[in-house]
Amino acid sequence: MTAARHLQTYIDRHREALDRLGDLAPGVTAAAQACVSALTNGHKLVTCGNGGSAADAQHFAAELTGRYRRERRPLPALALTTDSSALTCIGNDYAFDEVFARQVRALVGPGDVLVGITTSGNSANVVKALAAARDRGAVTVALTGEAGGEAARHADITLKAPSSRTAHIQEMHILLIHVLCESIDDAFVEDDVAEETPA
Ligand SMILES: O=C(CO)[C@@H](O)[C@H](O)[C@H](O)[C@H](O)COP(=O)(O)O
Ligand SMILES: [Zn+2]
Question: Which residues bind Zn(2+) (predicted)?
């Protein structure tokens, strides 16, 4: 297939998913409220995922500790994918399934929000992180594909990107993350006329 044909296929499939994304409005509202309420009450956001979703987890956390679009105070957020010592120690000494859950048991407390990102919904390390966070009294949010999978069973709120294809699920996930960042900015930007940094 030519690159041009790939491009058209991606545009068509991306648009198909995008056209159905509005159905997630109630879940997005609930997730935004959970994030804002946790951060307002001095709690933190913790994220995790594998591969491309690890990048999304880090992206989300950095939007909060750094900045998203508007100027506001730094907000507490942490991706569990970034500490190679913790990942290799826990993976080596326990099991890869435990790499996020053990960090959750160390770092996540009541009132925090754990965001688990998994396109299949079935990555065991993300599922176990959601379960551990729930045990710790955190609010659990899963970003999944349309199937939801096992992750949905351990999440208080599940945002199911309306696609079964990993790439397009990931594309919807990053859009959803940015939408959550808009709501978080709304809650923490003090001067609402603050300008966006030009690209
Ligand atoms: O980015 C991609 C594929 O687009 C890959 O790195 C992908 O994230 C990895 O295969 C992940 O291990 C998939 O895990 P999950 O989304 O099913 O939890
Ligand atoms: Zn990818």
Answer: 59, 63, 170, 178
